[in-house]
Amino acid sequence: MLKVSKWNLFFIIVVCISGLYFILPNFYGKSEVTALPSYISKKQVNLGLDLQGGSHLLLEVDTRSVLKEESENLVDEIRSVLRKMKVKYLNLGSKVTGAVVTIKDEQMVSPVITELRKSINKQILIENEGNKLSLLFSEKMISDSRNRTVEQSIEVVRKRVDESGTKEPTIQKQGNERIIVQLPGVKDPDRIKTLIGRTAKLNFHMLDKTTVELAEQRGKFPAGTFKALNADPTAYEKEFLVKKRVLLTGDRLKNAAATVDAQTGRYVVAFEFDTKGAKKFAKITTENTYQRLAILLDNRVISAPQIREPITGGQGNISGNFSANAANDLAVLLRAGSLPAPIQVLEERTVGPSLGLDSIEAGKKALIIGFMLVIIFMIIKYRVFGFVADLAIIINVILLVSMLSAIEATLTMPGIAGIVLTVGMAVDANVLVFERIREELRSGRSIINSIELGYKYALKTIIDANFTTLIAALLLFNYGSGPIKGFAVTLSIGILTSMFSALILTKMIVSLWVLKFKPNKIYI
Amino acid sequence: MNINFYKYRIFAFVFSTAILLVSTILFAYKSLNLGIDFKGGIMIEAKFSETPVISELRKKIENLNIGNSEIQEFGDPSIILFKLENSSAEKNTNLIIDKFKESIGTEADYRRVEFVGPKVGKELKIIALKAIIFSLIAMFIYIWFRFSGWQFGLGALIALFHDVISTIGFFSITQVEFNLASIAAILTIAGYSINDTVVVFDRIRENLVKSDLEFSSLLNKSINQTLSRTFMTSVTTLLALVALFVFGGEVIKGFVSAMIWGVLIGTYSSIFIASPLIILFGYKYNKG
User: Fold this and answer.
1) Are residues A391 and A250 located together in one domain of the fold?
2) Interval B50-70: pLDDT, tens
3) Does some domain include residue A422?
4) Distance, in angstroms, between A491 CA and closest chain B CA?
């Protein structure tokens, strides 16, 4: 018998009230919502990057370069061990994850191995084939090194993004060696991309007294020097002859800031070393007074000043030919430190604020018009029942948006399409029921009986049919990225809310109506 | 209303075979207009204050010497969509985008800049394929369990393939860009099509219990009984989709147009393909 259970009614009321509770914060701005009283939910639907504008970057850390460096260090260690033992060797060289060497005297192989075991990392595997030794990093060392490199890179990227003044960035690791960076509402994504991508290795060297020109005329570079380009290609001095030895690195920097030099009126980057760095810097400047220092950023000379007097305070200026922005960016890079390995941008998706606004407008318009079309059509087709179904659609959308807010889901443009689509498809469950009621009426059953049977028979079909759509939505969620995930989320929640509104809510309304007014005839 | 759908099955099979053939041939010869999601490359949407002359833009881009490019109007004459395929030696996309902006003009409003590296493009392709294949398998298994008899599962699956392949044909003939959103469209269409099919199958199953009609008539009766619902749902879904198509903006137009096609073809296939196939596969049921 068709009846209205109090518990059912209670359940519906609770669901609808919590729906209103969770949808409410969306009518306030981000700043207004925090000012609301504590008993009001503050969870809002987040706008995806495609709606609010912003950048999504997928970065890959070249962790192999660190392993290569570690391999080269291993080669140095092996060399010093062999020299100490006065053992003759051949073909000492690094591999991607280790080193190889051939010992001339086969008798010496096992003492060499014993000695190497003592002085190098215990986790390095030493194998020999006759007098050929190979030293390989263990799997664990490789994965540890990779993890460390990626973690450090994330730290540096986070510092750089924070320093650049981006609000609410998301920076997270993906897979083994990738980083996802999401920058909502960024005005100048190009600048941040450039900031993120720089390795920013700052090294202090001394310049050689010879110039590149002279060395090239002689056809021979002085021992222990190399040629480095000027970072500013428009400068008068294009190339420098730099001594290979690194005297000091940017790791020892405590602070850096862009300022204007009082004398020249130009932008400079003032830096400050930590205690250890300051001591070293004092020593360097004392020993090399009147010579030229070379400050290299990623192997290009950004400044080559002459040391006029010993600098003991641990402070100094880098005066390249900087614009205000360039000086600022360099200061950010120096404060955040250098990346342990080069980073490559694999994927970028940037949406400007104007497109985001246009999309929101278009989405709203499409939602309202699609909504109206469906509502009018339902009333024309089903009259009173159409009205009930329309009520269900409206509550359905309210519940859908409130659930999206409650889980603080991200709404994307495809997500809005998902809502519009849900409006169209949510009607389906109601239509299934109504058509069934109509059939039962035609076969001569009473109104109350038909309604009861209509809901009963349609139930199974509705669950079956929605389940398959849910499968598609869940797979989309699993495999989709960004905007598509947003579509999958709204679609799946839409399916759940539409089942609630069709099977529980409209059933209640229809039952109440029929029991109250006891119509002799219903149009359906 | 009582239409003898079963009678038209031969026409339907011929019609569908033709659609599938055309789709396959189109796919083979005309291929798809792959977006940068799968092909890799750079896509830039720019809005100009004055309607630009496309041939001039083309010249400017050719001067950059970075490889093939596509330039098209995007919904409005002042909005241009550029697709660049970077085949130059410069692998730093940042620099290429900078160069591009310099030559096209920095005062334009760059509404969208997307770059997908070749590595990611390949990965996305694999992910997309996986998503489609797994969802087809999952749906097949569900139908198989839910309805006794593999004929139901296979009928639904073939109808599903029919819809997916003809939707790919749709992308090929219209040359609507095929991207990640297209995959979402295909999966949603698959869900919708199965949804329609399940409603008909459910009715067949219900009728099997209480009716002693011959199976082909029973099938017809079931389709007719659910016809009005099938029609209604298609209409409301199409109403929502048309609103999205007209007002939803240029970015999702491709996605929505594929969905509209999918709803039409999905509705057709659940009536004319999925159900008659059950008989073709020799489904027998024990009367009484």
Assistant:
1) no
2) 899 999 999 999 888 888 899
3) yes
4) 9
